[in-house]
Design brief:
Blueprint: E1 11-14, H1 19-31, E2 37-43, H2 50-61, E3 66-71, H3 74-79, H4 113-127, E4 132-134, H5 150-160, E5 169-171, H6 179-189, H7 211-222
Parallel strand pairs: 1-2, 1-4, 2-3, 4-5
Helix pairs in contact: 1-6, 6-7
């Protein structure tokens, strides 16, 4: 259970519009009862905006105080050649085509993305007098990213603790949880999963074969539920 000793009970929550960040938003609002909630989403040059549309919907669903979509699309030009998630970058692979050696840092990794997003979120929180930032890092079953780990979380917070006045703390309540756990919790919280999006390719229907689609389908299956999104 996340606890806070701050007198300001507000929170900044990073929401992409996917399962984990959407469930996290409802968890912070309803279970942790933080208010006001300021939601941040980012245009970092990704292939499509379908997740951002879902982020808007989820922010409205919890009556967030504010929802800002921050344009850092210049980032796409800086890292395009290194990531399949960036518009004009590498093609999005099918999960079955990932080599075993790629699973610790797959082609869908965006260089230093979470460090950048969390830095912006921490700055915004500090300016608002808010000391707690939440993001939806979780333990991936099939592959992983270094900036979604307990190690990363601890070290980022160690840097933020250098603040001489009011340090901001980054929280990742799901960092040890699986996506199936997020699905189960989302059901308890009444999250509408048809208003979330995961597919990296961003077509009219989810592709069902990219890494995040495979992981999402597995999570719903493990939770004993059917994913409400349409698939190709």
């Amino acid at each position: 259970m996340e606890m806070s000793t701050n007198t300001n009970q507000g929170a900044v929550v990073l929401v992409s519009g996917g399962i984990d960040s959407s469930v996290l938003l409802h968890y912070v609002a309803r279970n942790l009862k933080r208010a006001p909630i300021h939601v941040l989403s980012f245009n970092y040059g990704q292939r499509h905006a379908k997740e951002l549309d879902c982020a808007r919907w989820q922010a409205d669903a919890v009556d967030a105080e504010t929802h800002r979509i921050i344009d850092i699309s210049f980032m796409g030009g800086l890292v395009r050649g290194a990531s399949a998630l960036i518009a004009g970058g590498k093609s999005v692979p099918e999960f079955k085509d990932l080599a075993a050696g790629d699973l610790d840092q797959p082609p869908t990794y965006v260089p230093n993305r979470n460090m950048i997003l969390l830095s912006i979120a921490a700055a915004h929180a500090e300016a608002q007098g808010i000391r707690d930032v939440y993001y939806g890092a979780q333990a991936l079953d099939e592959y992983g990213y270094w900036d979604c780990t307990k190690d990363f979380l601890e070290r980022v917070n160690a840097v933020l603790a250098l603040n001489r006045r009011e340090p901001v703390t980054i929280h990742a309540p799901f960092v040890s949880k699986k996506k199936a756990d997020s699905v189960r919790l989302g059901v308890e919280l009444g999250v509408l999963f048809n208003q979330t999006w995961s597919c990296y390719r961003g077509g009219a229907r989810a592709c069902g074969v990219c890494p995040t689609c495979v992981e999402r389908l597995k999570a719903f299956k493990e939770a004993g539920l059917e994913d409400p999104l349409p698939y190709e």
